[in-house]
Amino acid sequence: MSLRERGFFELYRNDPERADALVFGRRAGIGRRGFLQGAGLTAMGAAVGGLIPFADRMPGGFIPAAFAQGAAAGPKPLKMDGKAEIMVIQERPLNAETPEHMLDDDVTPNAKYFIRNNGLPPDPAADPKAWKFKIDGEVNTPLELTAGELESRFTQVSYKLQLECGGNGRSFFSPETRGNQWGNGAAGCAEWTGVRLRDLLQAAGLKSSAIYTGHYGSDIHLSGNPQQVTISRGMRIAKAMDEHTIVALRMNGVPIPRIHGGPVRLVVPGWAGSLSAKWLSRIWIRDKEHDGSGMGGFSYRTMKTPMVPGGKGDEKDTQILESMPVRSIISNPANGAELPDGTRQLNLRGAAWAGDKSVQAVHVSTDYGTSWQPTRLSAPANRFAWQRWTATVALPSAGYYEIWARATDADGKMQPHVAGNWNPQGYGGNPLHRVAVLVKA
Ligand SMILES: Nc1nc2c(c(=O)[nH]1)N[C@H]1C(S)=C(S)[C@@H](COP(=O)(O)O)O[C@H]1N2
Ligand SMILES: [Mo]
Question: In this model, does residue 73 exceed pLDDT 60?
Fold first, then answer.
């Protein structure tokens, strides 16, 4: 990469508005962007490494995907036994995301699964089968069970379940919000095996006062203080009774790896990942909305009415984030892929999911959203599994392209072009996914 090109990347990273003005030109005082042409087109072409066949369709005010991702400083590959080199975005607590192109498997292998910790994992269990967990509160008979009893005394079920962090997509918000700056990769779809929470709640006998759950894990607060709870979220009883909400013992056929919450964790598919308590030690059945750590303030909440982006916001105008919004990813090719000269067709693969809902369509565009074509979208392996899609697109000549993917859920809701409904902690950011590719001349 030449100095000039690097300068351009840096300019986009450090001062996207100025880069944008340089490339697209801006008439003084009007703030309206022209089309990419003249010196701007040359500079952009040099920076992205080729012609831009659909330059005239590039929308105003956006950072080319080639600069928006990958070029960012920061993420380092994870080095951990049993894990692939996913991207570390925070070391303590450990948080790591799976780049979209590493989510290309129908079922996400344990090695590639994202990691989200609020505290420090507990010491490895000396005897995993002796791991204890209890259900108490608004039940007739509190249960105390070991992992071994969960396996031997209750029916085991297996489902492929999509799970994503409530903050997945946070980095797409502008202005930046508090929290881990995830792309789309704080998500995965593994096969989980365990006991339906419903079966356990029926065994304990719910009182009529039971309306909410509260979840506790045995991880350690960053302060080291054993009295302090890292995170304790809960859900309405209806979600707890869904047949896909499970107290899991196995992940993709093996005992759940420690970093993913083994020996026992909850899996609450489709809702914010924080409900899926790892190292599960207790489920407290409540007679009111749970008030544990992560239930108040702006935590895991979105705005009821739009607020000024970057403003303070009013906590009373928030609602709990439950089902996650529709999202699609392109898992092949990777952002920044270079394709051999003469390439005129490109096979795409990806995944899409939509919280409690199914996805009815995924569309792709190669011309900045001017035209869209439908993809071949598979049915989910079971409810709450993500759906895989494939498509073949034509690339009319050599040059720089962006592939955009946009999913539509069963209710007709689509991913927006930019993250909407800004909220102080950045939940629910689900803009369409873009990858840059370069067809060599
Ligand atoms: N005990 C405990 N459970 C937890 C967390 C945690 O910090 N402690 N993080 C939650 C969050 S915010 C997410 S997104 C998922 C991530 O699960 P993973 O690390 O297996 O990907 O676990 C959830 N369960
Ligand atoms: Mo999360």
Answer: no
Cβ contacts of 39 within 8 Å, gap of 6 or more: none
Ligand 1 atom nearest to CA at 165: 14
What mean pLDDT is predicted for residues 98-120?
A: 98
Nearest CA to ligand 1 atom 11: 274
Mutational pocket test of ligand 1: of 94, 116, 258, the residue with most ligand atoms within 8 Å of the beta carbon: 116
By the 8 A CB rule, do 75 and 423 touch? no
What pLDDT, in 10s, does the model give residues 1-48? 343 455 666 777 777 677 767 666 654 444 445 666 677 778 778 878
Q: Please, are residues 98 and 114 in contact by the beta-carbon 8 Å criterion?
A: yes
Could you tell me if 157 and 303 lie in one domain?
Answer: yes
Residue 435 lies in a domain: yes
Instruction: Identify the CATH number of the domain in which residue 368 sits.
Output: 2.60.40.650
Q: Is residue 84 part of a domain?
A: no
Distances, alpha carbon 301 to alpha carbons 126, 169, 316, 412, 415, in Å: 38, 15, 10, 23, 19
Question: Which of 411, 177, 162, 210 shows the shortest CA–CA distance to 301?
Answer: 177
Query: What is the model's pLDDT at position 38?
Result: 74
Identify whether 57 is part of a domain: yes
> Which residues form the domain of 110?
95-320
Kindly tell me the burial class for residue 201, based on how many C-beta atoms sit within 10 Å of its own C-beta (0-12, 13-18, 19 or more): buried
Distance from C-alpha of 383 to C-alpha of 395, rounded to nearest angstrom = 35
Same domain, 104 and 173: yes
Q: How many domains does the chain have?
A: 3
Note whether 140 and 266 are same-domain residues. yes
For 424-441, what is each residue's pLDDT tens digit?
Answer: 999 999 999 999 999 998
Element (H, E) at 39: helix 38-48
Domain co-membership, 305 together with 335: no
Model pLDDT for residues 265-280, shown as the tens digit of each residue: 999 999 999 999 999 9
Q: How far is the CA of 433 from the centre of ligand 2 (A)?
A: 20
Question: What's the pLDDT band for 57 if we cut at 50, 70, 90?
Answer: confident
Asked whether the beta carbons of 380 and 388 are under 8 A apart, the reply is: no
pLDDT value at position 9? 65
3-class SS of residue 401? strand
> Is 154:247 a contact under the CB 8 Å cutoff?
no
